[in-house]
Amino acid sequence: MLAGTVDVRFEGAGLLPGQVNLAYGLHPAWRGRGLATRAVLLAARYAAREGGAQAVIQVDRDNPASAAVARRAGFTPAAPVPRADGAPFDRYVRELRAAAPRVRRLLRSGPPGPSRSRTGRRATSPKPSGRGRTGS
Question: What DSSP assignment string belongs to 108-129?
Answer without folding.
Answer: HH----TTB-TTSPBP--PPPP
